[in-house]
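Researcher: Hi, I'm a grad student and pretty new to this. My advisor asked me to get structures for two proteins we've been looking at. I'm not sure of the right format, so I'll just paste the first sequence and hope you can take it from there.
Model: That works fine. Here's the first sequence with its structure tokens right after it:
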Amino acid sequence: MAITCKINGVEHGLRWDWQIQQRSYQRTTLTMNTMDDVLNILIGQTVEIFDNSTKIFSGIIKTRNVFGEHKLECNLEVHDNNSKADKRRVNAVVTSMTVSTAISTHIAPILAEEGVTLGIIDCPITITRDVWRFYKISECLDRMKALQPEYIWYIDIDNKLHFRPKSQLPTVTIDSSFLFTNFTYSQDMDNYFNSLYVLGNSVRTSLQTYELLTPLADGTTRTFVCRFPLSNEPVTLETYNGSTWSTVPETDIGINGLDSGKKWYWSYNSNSLTQDSAETVLPAGNAVRLHYYGLRPLVMKNENLAEISNRQALEGGSGIYDQLQEIGGLDDLSQATQYISSVLGQYSELCDQISFTTLSFIDIYSNIVFNLPYYGIANMKMLVDSVTISQSVVEGVDRVRYQVKCIDSATFGGWESYFYDIIKNQRKFTLNEADILLEIKGVNENISIDTNIWLNAYDGTALPQTLPFILGGANEEVIINE
């Protein structure tokens, strides 16, 4: 039989109705039934599917259902190795670092604990600034990928993480000599737009210099207000005594509600700067001024003028197709511009799709070049968007059938809609200078306690009072779980 299944390296029988559903930027899922050694099949074990000697799937058991009266049977749902990027989270601020460096620095050490090694990591794009506030590794990879639509990430069947241009993926050529059936070529503009409005929470302003805070000192006020909410600790804080300006040392400035023993306090996303109550209040005629980076609402618009002109010539009217996106957490204007430009470039083209069925192995991470003059297609390069793999009987022989959907690389797969959801739903929080991570770890500690224990008790009059306390039994051992 050409089709074999291994669970934790042991070959198992496989019912004919198994199916692998692959979709770009979604977790590939294998559903299958087996009756072999059912009770030893457990959640978390590895499952591999082979088409003759070619491994076509590798993943981890996520769901297990055992049933049957006369003969036990096990139904499994298995997720591919990409799911390992969903298990762990990253807490980091990435600044002025290439994507490749960010992966090797912050992501690779964590994935190594899950048995994942680095494959092809080739992305020299620089991340201006990004905040990973306990995001899943998969979300961090998604965010970096969104900086440039040309790139793709995945963990392959050999547990290697790849982050590289789509153009570098293996290429399959399909022409009249390639055996396929059920061929369909279609076009649509369901996700098309050429004008993009973006609303966001806030981005950093340019450096605000010599801004005089309000109100002026009056001998009573300790809280002074600046124009923009603060994005980080003030660059310089100065006070005026009626004749000269003096710079407050950085060591005398702290985070409100977190630090103590400082002279001045600030808070992220707050316009207020507060003098410590223990300090002498500034008398009337004094003043406070700041050099600082603030936060302001993000409102941007970008257009693909060439595509608007093209649509206008074809359709008449304005040729404009508007789209609105709301994005939270992008606090750097340069990064926001990178993201918006890449999204607009990706969606301001019509979507070409091709689907077909074949018995030849097609990897989900492939480029396909179509050269089929009969359909009016010449050297059209496309990416594989989805593959459904199942068993088929051809001339009495069990074969693997691949139902393939391809889409042009410019409007790849509708994946960015998924990324928008991550941006809108997950990125409402921004890690900033005021955040502190407190990591609590459980420790099993063995403690030997002698027979006699003395407790010091306080009766309100004198200290200490020593009370003998008998635990019972010599050298008792107590396990304390902290």
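Researcher: Oh nice, that was easy. Here's the second one.
Model: And its structure:
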Amino acid sequence: MTSSLGDALSALLGDGAGAAGDSASGGSGGKPGGRGAGGTALDGLSGDRAEVTDVLFRVLGDDAPEDAPGLESTLRGDIGLDRLGIVELLVRCEEETGVRFDDDAVTGMKTLGDVVSHVEAGREK
């Protein structure tokens, strides 16, 4: 018998919280191009940070903040992604940047800066 999706994601992301403690704030349903496509939240951002932030806004959809979160913003606490939302963010980042997130990398992703740094390092190879 297989474990639940929440248990599998919990093991993948390396936190001990059960699926019942998650909010349902993650998900797709965003506007194409993210909130930043209109020119406000992504102004002043460039390169990999702008690209990852744009993906984040599309994952958050209507729950996206008006301003871009800082690199030190935690994915779960500050930004409000649940485990599934984090996985969706990383999968979309893989698709759009071409940089792979292996299991070891995923377990270390705690902040937006961690994701941006991983994309930057992957592109330097």
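Researcher: Is there anything I should tell my advisor about the second?
Model: You could mention this: The radius of gyration is 14 Å.
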